Amino acid sequence: MNILSLYGLFLAKILTVVVSISVLVVIITNLTKRNNSSTGKLQLIRLDEKYTEIQNKMRLAKMTSSQKKIWKKELNKQKQKEEKINKKQNRSKNYQNKQKPTLYVLDFQGSLDAREVSSLRKEISAVLAVAERGDEVLLRLESPGGLVHGYGLAAFQLQRLRNKDIPLIVSIDKIATSGGYMMACVASHIIAAPFSLIGSIGVVAQIPNFNRLLKRNEIDLELHTAGKYKRTLTLFGENSEEGREKFREDLNQTYLLFKQFVHEMRPKLDIETVSNGAHWYGTQALEKGLIDEISTSDDLIINKMTQYQILSVCYTRHQRVIDRLMNKLSFGIKNLLNFLTT
């Protein structure tokens, strides 16, 4: 009995600490909400100008003093010519038609619940508001997938570009599996690095059950539902075979919808071959038709610079305290998983 009493006291202390931390987090979150009057802002960066600036610095670093003087004079002459051309274009009524088309660059680093979709929808809306004929969008995607409804919404946000006939290129430098590939397959062209991870077209779900632990400790649990399948599997209740069967049925239905969606986006893909839940490296994915080209986002942007002006579009939100804590926790878990799998 003494051991049980000590164990009960220990649990009570743990519960008190958890409740105290929860209350503190709620208070801090509410205070943070009051202090943040705006939700976020749209950041626009000309990547082609940034790259040109770096390129010029590298060139200068290799020149002698006399070479630098000559080079700077030539550069100033070139700038003056461009300014004159721009002035003439500004006087013309059709100056907009003479500008380079724009390659809009978006970034999506997906978490388990795909909460980044709230920023993605803002970025896509901003692009759609100004996009013109000839413009394209590059999405630099990195995600191992996650919740179906979150990544389903993210994929549909990308479909908004497809519906407006705006070419979408998805670049996968590291990973786009499961829900990540659901997003990628919307693109008109997919590029990936040779050792990036692609695919994992499948659905997985798991749930622990503590019912036997509760029974051993003579703890009763009451669960009341209205609707036969309102709850199929539970954490603490006693699961039935009928409930398990319905859970598997729902899982299979989600899987079929996933396969159908990928096949609609990439009709030439042999969907039955690649939809077994496996993933492949970039070079293997190219052979199977999951992607269209082996390359990286950096090479693509550099190659596009002569024909397009490159504009990075990023909607950043003011993070609440709880969000920063969750991001740090997620980052730690991701690092642990990377350590265990490398």
Description:
Pfam families: Peptidase_S49, Peptidase_S49_N. There is one protein chain. The protein has 342 residues and is an alpha/beta fold. The chain has 2 domains: 40-50 and 101-200 and 278-342, Alpha-Beta Complex (2-enoyl-CoA Hydratase, Chain A, domain 1); 201-277, no CATH class. 54% of the residues lie in helices and 16% in strands. Strands 1, 2, 3, 4, 5, 6, 7, 8 and 9 form a 9-stranded mixed β-sheet that branches. Helix 4 runs parallel beside helix 5.
Radius of gyration: 27 Å
Q: Please give the alpha-carbon distance between the first and last residues.
A: 47 Å
What structural category arises from helix and sheet content? alpha/beta
CATH architecture of the largest domain: Alpha-Beta Complex
Transmembrane segments: 6-31, 181-205
InterPro entries: ClpP/crotonase-like_dom_sf, Peptidase_S49, Peptidase_S49_N_proteobac, S49_SppA_C
Pfam family, one: Peptidase_S49_N
Coiled coil: 68-98
